[in-house]
Write a structure and sequence with these properties.
Layout (H helix, E strand, L loop, with lengths): L22 H5 L4 E6 L5 E10 L2 E10 L5 E7 L5 E9 L2 E15 L4 E15 L4 E3 L4 H4 L8 E2 L2 E3 L7 E7 L12 E7 L4 E6 L5 E6 L5 E7 L4 E6 L8 E7 L6 E6 L5 E8 L2 E8 L7 E5 L10 E3 L6 E4 L8 E2 L2 H13 L4 E7 L5 E7 L6 E6 L4 E7 L12 E3 L2 E2 L5 E7 L9 E5 L15 H8 L3 E6 L8 H5 L8 H15 L3 E8 L4 H8 L1
Parallel strand pairs: 7-9, 32-33, 32-34
Antiparallel strand pairs: 1-2, 2-3, 3-4, 5-6, 6-7, 7-8, 10-11, 11-12, 12-13, 14-15, 15-16, 16-17, 18-19, 19-20, 20-21, 22-23, 23-24, 25-26, 26-27, 27-28, 29-31, 30-31, 31-33
Length: about 525
């Protein structure tokens, strides 16, 4: 019997270190991650790290919350494939997205070369029969001249249909190299691997959405000139029509998010006062009037729709400037407030509900908490901690992160975050400037294992959202266009200059570190 490093229901029994931490504490995969609550609320799936003798890797574990018994249902050594995501289809079936290393032919004009790449596959776990199923048969896949790289795109899990799911794949199966293929939707029976076309591909359409009645009703269109628009069937019987064309980086941007229980209601993300916000549109309205649902006066509203497993309707958005989700239902707002009161220093996310909405899963983290999972019950409300992402990263040893805003040399306000080593004087510290990647991305005061590792070794760390970062509206994001190495770099440098001027950074011990765009900024620095 393989032992594994963590048992979901017994993390609280481990003693935690009281000295400086080794590199491995920060550089290992999470002890536990990707927890998902089953529809009944009686089971919990998780991805756990396995490390015993010569057996090392990652496993999908299922825990019976009543008995406390754990069961490994899938294991990988992380060499053949990684586990990307896990989701419950129903009480007896888990969907697992995996990521494989691969090599692909690339034509460079002088001949073909093999490039390393990543591909995805879907595994379906039948928990009753202890079987791991594949959605596509070898005979079906042989129809493709070039194998689709993405084979885990579940458009709709069809939770009330025990044998079928809807998956996105190219529907043009015999294609020459260099010929573009477009994505359609197949209805897949993963029990017998039979498959039929559910939605034919449409030229330049790269993604599809179903309504709550499981009909394909929306897609995203991108042409060769960079114009994007939404394709819709205003009713299931209609033909496809195009709406809301826009160019990338323009204020006309519209992105469909999903349908309400009412098949006429479509939720979209679009700009409101130059900040992304959530609207709903009644497709039966000939004017397609937008009704504002939720906006933030400071930040773009990101995230996805949150649905009730009971009513199947939209109950919120997985966004809040302060952490947690934004719920529209008054009772769920009270529930979120109760959780925030119980865990006052955390960003607390209700990531799943049981079908009766009485059991729920909470993920809580902060600048010093790498992540704690709780199972909650309503009526009366109670929370029980069941797992930690990194059990060795004791919050008592982590270094707090604080807001450290400043003005760039041209007067632009820059939002930044400073982490100073715990128990340091806070003065004349060796300092690392740590710009984020993207560059259309952003940093905040969430837990960052790089930052905590560096602070643990005695460095102050400054992270800033330079112009061009996302989340602070259209103008701030677009201020980074054609500005790499120029004002964007000034924003980074001006943060270092402020730390030196205030005596926090030792001017003789300052360096810059980054990856992706942050790596470019480090080289330019």
């Amino acid at each position: 019997m393989v032992k594994y490093i963590c048992s979901l229901l017994f993390f609280l029994c481990y003693s935690l270190p009281t000295v400086a931490l080794p590199v491995e504490s920060f550089a290992s995969l999470p002890d536990v991650s990707k927890l998902e609550l089953s529809p009944s609320g009686e089971q919990l799936s998780a991805v756990v790290r396995v490390s015993v003798e010569n057996t090392k890797g990652t496993a999908v574990q299922v825990t019976n919350l009543k008995s406390g018994k754990n069961k490994l249902v899938l294991f990988t050594d992380n060499k053949k494939y990684d586990i990307g995501w896990v989701s419950w289809k129903d009480e007896k079936t888990l969907l697992v997205g995996t990521v494989y290393p691969s090599k692909r032919d690339t034509w460079l004009g002088v001949g073909r070369i093999l490039n390393k790449t990543r591909e995805t596959r879907l595994m379906i776990i039948d928990l009753e029969k202890d079987q791991v199923l594949a959605p596509f048969s070898p005979a079906f896949l042989k129809k493709y001249t070039f194998m689709p790289t993405s084979q885990d795109d579940v458009v709709d899990s069809l939770p009330d249909d025990p044998d079928h799911i809807l998956m996105a794949l190219p529907t043009n199966q015999s294609l020459a190299m260099g010929v573009r293929s477009y994505i359609g939707v197949y209805k897949v029976n993963f029990r017998d691997q039979s498959i039929r076309s559910f939605q034919e591909s449409e030229d330049h359409v790269y993604g599809w959405w179903t309504d709550q009645q499981h009909r394909v009703r929306a897609g995203i269109f991108i042409d060769d000139e960079g114009t994007r628009k939404t394709v819709l069937k205003k009713s299931p019987e209609d033909k496809w029509q195009s709406y809301w064309p826009y160019k990338v980086f323009s204020e006309d941007e519209v992105m469909p998010l999903g349908f309400g229980l009412d098949p006429n209601i479509l939720y979209i993300r679009a700009y409101h006062e130059k900040r992304l916000a959530i609207f709903k549109v009644n497709l039966a309205d000939k004017n397609m009037t937008r009704e504002l649902v939720f906006a933030d006066p400071v930040y773009d509203v990101n995230g996805s729709l949150v649905y009730s497993p009971s009513t199947k309707d939209v109950i919120g958005i997985s966004y809040s400037a302060k952490g947690g989700f934004t719920f529209f239902d008054p009772e769920l707002k009270k529930l979120q407030a109760s959780i925030d009161k119980a865990i006052p220093n955390g960003k607390n996310y209700i990531t799943g509900f049981s079908k009766d909405m009485q059991t729920f899963l909470v993920f809580s983290s902060s600048d010093i908490d790498s992540g704690t999972y709780y199972i909650g019950q309503r009526n009366p409300i109670k929370l029980n901690a069941v797992a930690y992402r990194y059990k060795q990263l004791d919050t008592a040893l982590m270094s707090p992160t604080q807001r450290y805003d400043y003005k760039a040399r041209d007067g632009l306000a820059i939002e930044a975050y400073l982490t100073v080593p715990k128990n340091s004087t806070g003065k004349k510290l060796p300092t690392i400037i740590f710009p984020h990647g993207g560059p259309i991305a952003r940093d905040d005061d969430s837990f960052d294992y790089w930052t905590q590792y560096l602070a643990d070794k005695g460095y102050a760390v400054l992270q800033m959202n330079f112009r061009g970062s996302s989340g602070q509206g259209l103008d701030f994001r677009n201020a980074g266009l054609k500005n790499w190495g120029m004002e964007m770099q000034n924003d980074v440098e001006d943060g270092a200059r402020k730390l030196i001027a205030e005596g926090i950074a030792d001017e003789k011990s300052v360096c810059i570190l980054g990856a992706s765009y942050g790596g470019y900024a480090a080289l330019m620095g």
